[in-house]
Amino acid sequence: SQTIHQWPATLVQPVGSPLSLECTVEGTSNPNLYWYRQAAGRGLQLLFYSVGIGQISSEVPQNLSASRPQDRQFILSSKKLLLSDSGFYLCALYQGYGYTFGSGTRLTVV
Amino acid sequence: SQQGEEDPQALSIQEGENATMNCSYKTSINNLQWYRQNSGRGLVHLILIRSNEREKHSGRLRVTLDTSKKSSSLLITASRAADTASYFCATDGNRDDKIIFGKGTRLHILP
Q1: How many angstroms away from the CA of B56 is the closest CA of chain A?
Q2: Is B11 on the interface with A (CB under 8 A)?
Q3: Chain-wide mean pLDDT for chain A?
Q4: In chain A, which residues touch B (CB < 8 A)?
Q5: What's the pLDDT band for B2 if we cut at 50, 70, 90?
Q6: Which residues contact A12 (CB under 8 A, 6 or more apart)?
Protein backbone atom coordinates (compact mmCIF):
# COMPACT_ATOMS: atom_id res chain seq x y z
CA SER A 1 0.00 0.00 0.00
CA GLN A 2 1.06 3.55 -0.57
CA THR A 3 2.38 5.57 2.31
CA ILE A 4 3.54 9.13 2.42
CA HIS A 5 5.92 10.51 4.99
CA GLN A 6 6.12 14.18 5.82
CA TRP A 7 8.28 15.91 8.38
CA PRO A 8 8.63 17.70 10.64
CA ALA A 9 5.19 17.75 12.24
CA THR A 10 5.65 21.23 13.65
CA LEU A 11 8.11 23.97 12.92
CA VAL A 12 8.63 27.46 14.30
CA GLN A 13 10.88 29.63 12.19
CA PRO A 14 11.85 33.32 12.36
CA VAL A 15 10.99 35.70 9.56
CA GLY A 16 13.71 35.71 6.93
CA SER A 17 14.97 32.22 7.70
CA PRO A 18 15.10 29.44 5.09
CA LEU A 19 12.66 26.55 4.91
CA SER A 20 12.90 22.97 3.74
CA LEU A 21 10.01 20.54 4.12
CA GLU A 22 10.46 17.04 2.82
CA CYS A 23 7.94 14.52 1.62
CA THR A 24 8.74 10.95 0.64
CA VAL A 25 6.54 8.25 -0.78
CA GLU A 26 6.59 4.46 -0.47
CA GLY A 27 4.71 1.70 -2.19
CA THR A 28 4.31 3.32 -5.57
CA SER A 29 6.32 4.64 -8.46
CA ASN A 30 5.98 7.71 -10.65
CA PRO A 31 3.24 9.27 -8.53
CA ASN A 32 1.79 12.71 -9.08
CA LEU A 33 2.83 14.70 -6.02
CA TYR A 34 1.32 17.85 -4.58
CA TRP A 35 2.01 20.50 -1.96
CA TYR A 36 -1.01 22.18 -0.40
CA ARG A 37 -1.22 24.90 2.21
CA GLN A 38 -4.14 25.33 4.55
CA ALA A 39 -4.55 28.55 6.51
CA ALA A 40 -6.38 28.33 9.83
CA GLY A 41 -10.06 27.45 9.26
CA ARG A 42 -9.68 27.64 5.53
CA GLY A 43 -9.65 25.29 2.59
CA LEU A 44 -6.66 23.84 0.83
CA GLN A 45 -4.62 25.97 -1.53
CA LEU A 46 -2.67 24.10 -4.16
CA LEU A 47 0.90 25.39 -4.23
CA PHE A 48 2.86 23.03 -6.47
CA TYR A 49 2.40 19.76 -8.24
CA SER A 50 4.79 17.42 -9.98
CA VAL A 51 4.19 14.66 -12.49
CA GLY A 52 7.80 13.46 -12.53
CA ILE A 53 11.41 14.03 -11.57
CA GLY A 54 12.42 17.62 -12.15
CA GLN A 55 8.91 18.59 -13.31
CA ILE A 56 7.31 21.25 -11.15
CA SER A 57 4.21 23.33 -11.81
CA SER A 58 3.52 26.34 -9.65
CA GLU A 59 0.00 27.43 -8.92
CA VAL A 60 0.48 30.55 -6.84
CA PRO A 61 3.21 33.20 -7.19
CA GLN A 62 5.03 33.37 -3.90
CA ASN A 63 8.40 33.09 -2.28
CA LEU A 64 8.13 29.33 -2.03
CA SER A 65 9.65 26.84 -4.42
CA ALA A 66 9.46 23.09 -4.89
CA SER A 67 11.80 20.47 -6.23
CA ARG A 68 11.57 16.80 -7.08
CA PRO A 69 15.08 15.40 -7.08
CA GLN A 70 13.93 11.77 -6.99
CA ASP A 71 10.81 9.95 -8.08
CA ARG A 72 9.54 9.54 -4.54
CA GLN A 73 10.82 12.76 -3.00
CA PHE A 74 9.16 16.17 -3.09
CA ILE A 75 10.66 19.16 -1.30
CA LEU A 76 9.12 22.52 -0.46
CA SER A 77 11.58 25.33 0.14
CA SER A 78 11.94 29.00 0.80
CA LYS A 79 15.03 31.17 0.95
CA LYS A 80 13.41 33.76 3.25
CA LEU A 81 10.20 33.08 5.11
CA LEU A 82 7.47 35.67 5.49
CA LEU A 83 4.89 35.91 8.27
CA SER A 84 2.25 35.08 5.68
CA ASP A 85 3.91 31.71 5.05
CA SER A 86 2.51 30.41 8.32
CA GLY A 87 0.06 27.58 7.83
CA PHE A 88 -0.47 23.87 7.64
CA TYR A 89 1.43 22.29 4.76
CA LEU A 90 0.28 19.01 3.31
CA CYS A 91 2.00 16.76 0.85
CA ALA A 92 -0.16 14.40 -1.18
CA LEU A 93 0.08 11.83 -3.93
CA TYR A 94 -2.59 11.01 -6.44
CA GLN A 95 -2.96 7.90 -8.55
CA GLY A 96 -6.35 8.05 -10.12
CA TYR A 97 -8.57 6.88 -7.29
CA GLY A 98 -7.92 9.64 -4.83
CA TYR A 99 -5.34 11.37 -2.77
CA THR A 100 -3.21 9.96 -0.03
CA PHE A 101 -2.11 12.76 2.28
CA GLY A 102 0.81 13.09 4.60
CA SER A 103 0.21 14.03 8.21
CA GLY A 104 1.11 17.65 7.58
CA THR A 105 3.58 20.21 8.91
CA ARG A 106 2.35 23.07 11.07
CA LEU A 107 4.63 26.01 10.22
CA THR A 108 4.60 29.11 12.37
CA VAL A 109 6.70 32.03 11.23
CA VAL A 110 7.50 34.41 14.07
CA SER B 1 -8.65 22.57 -13.04
CA GLN B 2 -11.82 21.74 -11.19
CA GLN B 3 -13.24 23.17 -8.01
CA GLY B 4 -15.60 21.80 -5.43
CA GLU B 5 -17.55 24.10 -3.17
CA GLU B 6 -19.09 22.64 -0.02
CA ASP B 7 -22.27 23.73 1.64
CA PRO B 8 -22.95 24.49 4.45
CA GLN B 9 -19.71 25.93 5.76
CA ALA B 10 -20.52 24.68 9.24
CA LEU B 11 -23.03 22.21 10.63
CA SER B 12 -23.85 21.22 14.21
CA ILE B 13 -26.14 18.28 14.92
CA GLN B 14 -26.98 16.01 17.82
CA GLU B 15 -25.29 12.65 18.08
CA GLY B 16 -27.39 10.01 16.38
CA GLU B 17 -28.85 12.36 13.80
CA ASN B 18 -27.98 12.26 10.13
CA ALA B 19 -25.65 14.87 8.63
CA THR B 20 -25.89 16.00 5.03
CA MET B 21 -23.28 18.06 3.25
CA ASN B 22 -23.39 19.27 -0.31
CA CYS B 23 -20.81 20.00 -2.95
CA SER B 24 -21.18 21.91 -6.20
CA TYR B 25 -18.71 22.10 -9.04
CA LYS B 26 -18.46 23.95 -12.31
CA THR B 27 -17.30 21.77 -15.18
CA SER B 28 -17.51 18.16 -16.32
CA ILE B 29 -15.78 15.58 -14.17
CA ASN B 30 -14.48 12.04 -14.28
CA ASN B 31 -15.05 11.48 -10.59
CA LEU B 32 -15.74 13.25 -7.33
CA GLN B 33 -14.17 12.43 -4.01
CA TRP B 34 -14.95 13.20 -0.40
CA TYR B 35 -12.35 13.59 2.30
CA ARG B 36 -12.38 14.04 6.06
CA GLN B 37 -9.91 16.11 8.04
CA ASN B 38 -9.67 15.91 11.78
CA SER B 39 -8.33 19.05 13.43
CA GLY B 40 -4.65 19.54 12.73
CA ARG B 41 -4.32 16.36 10.71
CA GLY B 42 -4.01 15.37 7.10
CA LEU B 43 -7.01 14.56 4.96
CA VAL B 44 -8.34 11.04 4.75
CA HIS B 45 -9.97 9.74 1.59
CA LEU B 46 -13.53 8.59 2.31
CA ILE B 47 -15.17 7.70 -0.95
CA LEU B 48 -14.95 8.21 -4.70
CA ILE B 49 -17.93 8.30 -7.02
CA ARG B 50 -17.48 8.17 -10.77
CA SER B 51 -19.36 10.35 -13.19
CA ASN B 52 -21.42 7.40 -14.43
CA GLU B 53 -22.54 6.51 -10.90
CA ARG B 54 -25.46 8.12 -9.11
CA GLU B 55 -25.11 6.73 -5.62
CA LYS B 56 -22.51 4.96 -3.58
CA HIS B 57 -22.42 3.57 -0.06
CA SER B 58 -19.62 2.88 2.36
CA GLY B 59 -20.65 1.92 5.88
CA ARG B 60 -22.58 4.88 7.32
CA LEU B 61 -21.65 7.05 4.35
CA ARG B 62 -23.89 7.61 1.38
CA VAL B 63 -22.78 9.75 -1.55
CA THR B 64 -24.95 10.88 -4.42
CA LEU B 65 -23.92 12.53 -7.63
CA ASP B 66 -26.10 14.55 -9.98
CA THR B 67 -24.03 15.46 -13.02
CA SER B 68 -26.90 17.44 -14.56
CA LYS B 69 -26.87 19.76 -11.55
CA LYS B 70 -23.13 19.45 -11.05
CA SER B 71 -23.64 18.59 -7.42
CA SER B 72 -22.96 15.85 -4.90
CA SER B 73 -24.10 15.16 -1.39
CA LEU B 74 -22.50 13.28 1.47
CA LEU B 75 -24.82 11.77 4.04
CA ILE B 76 -23.50 10.44 7.33
CA THR B 77 -26.13 8.38 9.08
CA ALA B 78 -26.39 7.85 12.84
CA SER B 79 -23.67 10.40 13.54
CA ARG B 80 -21.11 9.83 16.28
CA ALA B 81 -18.84 12.16 18.20
CA ALA B 82 -15.91 10.79 16.21
CA ASP B 83 -17.48 12.16 13.02
CA THR B 84 -16.65 15.68 14.18
CA ALA B 85 -14.29 16.93 11.48
CA SER B 86 -14.11 19.01 8.33
CA TYR B 87 -15.31 17.40 5.13
CA PHE B 88 -14.04 18.33 1.70
CA CYS B 89 -15.05 17.40 -1.80
CA ALA B 90 -12.64 17.34 -4.71
CA THR B 91 -13.29 16.78 -8.37
CA ASP B 92 -11.16 15.18 -11.04
CA GLY B 93 -11.90 16.24 -14.58
CA ASN B 94 -8.81 14.59 -16.01
CA ARG B 95 -8.12 17.61 -18.14
CA ASP B 96 -4.94 18.17 -16.28
CA ASP B 97 -3.16 16.82 -13.26
CA LYS B 98 -4.63 19.27 -10.78
CA ILE B 99 -7.47 18.66 -8.40
CA ILE B 100 -8.88 21.56 -6.47
CA PHE B 101 -10.53 21.27 -3.09
CA GLY B 102 -13.34 23.37 -1.73
CA LYS B 103 -13.17 25.14 1.63
CA GLY B 104 -14.93 22.32 3.39
CA THR B 105 -17.84 21.82 5.76
CA ARG B 106 -17.03 21.85 9.46
CA LEU B 107 -19.21 19.24 11.10
CA HIS B 108 -19.65 19.26 14.86
CA ILE B 109 -21.50 16.41 16.56
CA LEU B 110 -23.04 17.48 19.85
CA PRO B 111 -23.20 14.90 22.67
Answers
A1: 15
A2: no
A3: 91
A4: 6, 32, 36, 41-44, 46, 49, 51, 57, 59, 88, 90, 92, 94, 97-104, 106
A5: very low
A6: A107, A108, A109, A110
